[in-house]
Amino acid sequence: MKNIVIAAGYATRLYPLTENFPKPLLKVGGSTILGRMMHDVDTFPEVDEHIIVTNHKFAHIFEAWAATETFAKPVRIIDDGTSTNETRLGAVRDLLLAIETCQVDDDIMVLAADNLLDFSLRDYVDFFLQKGTSVCMCHHQPSLERLHRSGVVELDDHQRVIGMEEKPAEPKSHWSTPPFYIYHKNDMPLIRDCMNHGCGFDAPGNLLRYLCQLVPIHAYVMKGNRFDIGSLDTYEEAKRIYGE
Which of 185, 226, 200, 230 is nearest to 91 (CA)? Predict the structure, then answer.
């Protein structure tokens, strides 16, 4: 299994901190946002490589960071060639770039690099192995306001995804889906060809929305909390919770 981390975004709401520095490498709780997640995943025997996709502006910073870290699995940095928010490829096209560049033909775990989790992803991988299909993660979100700003999935009685929308005006459920996915290698031909069939490219949930219409995908209910650092205020809050 390849762990593909999408870290190519431009966090404009965190300026000036992130004007010339990537959000995933901000310090929280004695580590970096990205480091906390990758050191967890690095312990999984199923994962054989970490692939980080970043923009050209920050590629050298990620390379320098990776050189100072100690991981059991190799780390590869992919530069997507973009230097501005206006020219960014978008999460789905960054994923496709990683798949093509690294010639990936395996199960892939796809993680957004700028999220904090207070639980291990180990149980999520076990859920994927049990189901034998691609899987996404979800949690119950009672707030309509927050549902309007997130991906929302509809589930059947067997936790199968029967529909997905990004930032819906009228959410069809209270199941919010954060940007953590595990795609089965059997679905790789569909993923490689998704842009030829109208799949959106910016938000990572666009690929989930496309695939759930074609193949079975199951949803894992989060066993803990996720902290999405989207502004200076939420970054300061994260440091209060997790430490500097």
Answer: 200
DSSP string, 74-123: -EEEEE----SSTT---HHHHHHHHHHHTT--S-EEEEETTEEESS-SHH
3-state secondary structure of 73: coil
pLDDT in tens, 127-151: 999 999 999 999 999 999 989 988 8
d(CA 189, CA 72): 29
The pLDDT value given to residue 84:
83
Q: Which bin fits 225, alpha (ψ -120 to 50), beta or left (φ > 0)?
A: beta
Which among 173, 177, 194 is positioned nearest to 90, based on CA atoms?
194
One-letter amino acid at 19 equals E
* pLDDT for residue 154 is more than 90: yes
pTM for the complete prediction? Answer: 0.93
Measured at the CA of 216, the angle between CA 128 and CA 121, to 5 degrees, comes to 20
Residue whose token pair is 């790789």 = 188
Which residues touch 205 (CB under 8 Å, ≥6 apart)?
151, 164, 166, 177, 179
- Residue from 132, 147, 141, 151 nearest 217 by CA: 132
* 3-32 residue pLDDT tens: 999 988 777 778 888 888 999 999 988 899
* Total Cβ atoms within 10 A of residue 74: 10
The Cα–Cα gap between 60 and 134 comes to: 32
